Amino acid sequence: MPYKFVDAILKPDARFADLCVVEHGTVRPMSVVDHHAALARIGLAGAAPEEVRAAFDRARNTMIYAFFDYDLLVVGEMQAFGAFELSLKHRLNGHGGASRGTLLRNLVERGEKRPDGPSLKLLNLVRAEGLRAIA
Q1: Cα separation, 101 vs 104, whole angstroms
Q2: 8 A C-beta contact, residue 71 and residue 1
Q3: What confidence tens digit (pLDDT) does each residue in 52-69 have?
């Protein structure tokens, strides 16, 4: 999207401008309030560390502004993936910092230690996809 002029900054991106909301049997254009409410319904389950919550909220905040510049959805998605990876690091390492090896390697090693459960399913998927070499 080209750089916006000041008078166009708060106008919805054309891809949002045509979206509608049905409310009480009436159709109306989607507003930034509707977009915000939709994003507000997406949350983290359980007690996530503050660092993960901050990363997740950064992703949602970026996605709010995608209402005005649709390309920011991609940036928001990348931020959300980063928050997800950070939450996995906290789960695996007990902290969000760097760990020995890659995240995938750590997941595979855990899968090898468990005879059943989701880790075994992940291990089988990794092996089936031929990703064992990077693990």
Answers
A1: 8
A2: yes
A3: 999 999 999 999 999 999
DSSP string, 46-60: S---HHHHHHHHHHH
Q: Is 17 helix (H, G, I), strand (E, B) or coil?
A: helix
What angle separates helix 118-128 from helix 103-113, to the nearest 10 degrees?
120
Both structure tokens of 126:
């990794």
Q: Is the model's pTM score more than 0.85?
A: no
On the question of pLDDT at 134 being above 50, the answer is no
Beta pairing, strands 26-29 & 20-23: antiparallel
Structure tokens at 104: 């995938």
Instruction: Tell which residue, 4, 2, 34, 3, has the closest CA to residue 16.
Output: 34
Question: For 39-49, what is each residue's pLDDT tens digit?
Answer: 999 988 878 88
Give the DSSP per-residue string, 53-112. Answer: HHHHHHHHHHHHHTTT-TTHHHHHHHHHHHHHHHHHHHHHHSSSS--SS-HHHHHHHHHH
